[in-house]
Every structure is written in C-alpha cells, then in structure tokens.
Design a protein that fits this description.
By secondary structure, the protein is mainly β. It is built from one helix and twelve strands; from the N terminus they run αββββββββββββ.
C-alpha cells in the first residue's frame, strides 16, 4: 500500500466519525421551561349615565378587581365598587363596598376561606361596616365551564351608624356562588347573608347577578343587578331594600 494513502485513509475515517462521536458525548440540553402563567390578573373600569328634561339625573360607578392565582391551592380575590348618583342636583346614591377573600382548596370540592367585607352607605346611615369572617365551603359543581358552591362560617362585625356609637358583635354567615362560562360571555350570581349573634333579626343580605361579555382581548362590558337588604336599618324611616342596575366598561390586565 502506498505509504501516503495509509496515512490519509485513517485520517479521513476519523474526520468522518468525529462529529457524531462528539455529539454523542455532549450532554443533551434541557427542554425550554414553559412560559409562566400570570399570577395576578384583574380589571378596572367605570360607567356613567346622564339624563335631562323633566328629570336631571347623573350616575357613575367605579370598580376594581384583582385576583392572585398561582395555579396552586391558594386563591386570593379583591373586589371594590363605588356608586354615586344624583337627581335634580340632589344626592341620591352614595355607596362603597369592598371584599377581600383568601380561599384555600382542601380537595377538588372542599375549601376553607377567610374574608373581610367593608360597606359604607350614606342613605342607609352606615358610616362603615366591617365584617371579618372565616369558614368552609363545598363545590357542588366544579369544572372548566360551570361552578356552583355553598359556604358558611362565623366571625365578627363592627358597625358605625350616623349618630350612634360603634357597635361590635359576633356573626354567622352563609353564601352561595354560581358561574357559567359561555363562548364569549360569563354569567355570575351570588348571595350572602350576615346575622349578628346578639340579635339574629339584625341581618345584612347582598344579592348580585351579572353578565360579562368580551369586546376585545382587553375590554369587557359588564351588566349587573345588585340588591342590598338590611333587616334592621338605623332608622325606621330608612327603607330596608336598595337595588342598583350597573353598566360598566372594564379594562382587563
């Protein structure tokens, strides 16, 4: 064999198999990590209605919602709403509400929760009402489209009415919540009642029914009906029942 060929042939074979051998020895790079889901989501928005003629009315609302959902067992929600309206330049509605709720999933259907509610209502003579509560609940239906749950618990309540001293006592509470997700809309309904332990005839109930529909990826239109019922108002001249029809344009984030 030609000496030059004897040297070139092994070198050529080595060059052919070297890249494959190096690739086999190199560690396989780890797969790319999935894009993390947003932990915080929410919305803020408002609505306004003005009429003129025989009756001049002005109404507006501001709302804010925030959800902390790390896709684990713990879910935190915060919601706030402010309503203000006047008729013939006379104030007719002035109400603010806020709810902070921390919900922990025990199983697929069972959960425990801690919640604090705040209410200020000028025309119910409530300067402030604060009610921290805790309890547990059960999800009768729990899938990607439909949710129906019931909950109950106990806690405390502090209420300050106009012209009266702040009064604190215990409370028991019960609530129900329903959600139905459609293709481009969501229906929500909820009702909750607080009873004061020193006088069970003194209770506060709140009912809400809403339809939310997406306008775009970041905009949502929400139509809502709310009913607030206080069985023992501060004065006998105050009506027990207050209702509100609310239209809100929301910006999602």
């Amino acid at each position: 064999m030609n000496p030059r060929f004897a040297i070139i042939l092994p070198s050529f074979v080595f060059a052919m198999f070297l890249p494959g051998w190096v690739a086999a020895q190199a560690p396989t790079p780890p797969p790319p990590e999935p894009t993390p889901l947003a932990v915080y989501t929410g919305s803020f928005g408002g609505g306004i209605a003005v009429t003129g003629g025989n009756t001049d009315t002005k109404n507006f609302n501001l709302s804010f919602g925030l959800i902390r959902d790390p896709k684990k067992k713990n879910l935190v929600k915060f919601n706030a709403l402010y309503l203000r309206g006047s008729q013939n330049d006379i104030l007719a509605v002035d109400r603010a509400t806020a709810t902070l709720r921390d919900e922990y999933t025990v199983s697929n259907r069972t959960f425990v929760f801690a919640q604090t509610d705040y209410l200020r209502d000028e025309f119910k003579e409530i300067r402030y009402l604060i009610a921290p509560v805790g309890g547990m609940g059960y999800k009768v239906i729990n899938d990607d489209r439909t949710s129906l749950s019931f909950s109950g618990g106990s806690g405390g309540i502090w209420e300050k009415d106009a012209g009266l001293a702040t009064k604190g006592t215990g409370n028991v509470n019960a609530g129900e919540s329903f959600t139905e997700k459609l293709s481009t809309a969501t229906i929500t309904q909820s009702i909750g009642t607080l009873w004061k332990t020193d006088d069970f005839s003194d209770s506060l109930s709140n009912f809400a029914l809403a339809l939310s529909t997406s306008i775009s990826r970041k905009l949502e239109l929400k139509l809502e009906f709310q009913d607030s019922y206080k069985n023992r108002p501060a004065l006998v001249t105050i009506k027990k029942n207050d209702t509100a029809y609310i239209t809100t344009l929301l910006v999602k984030f």
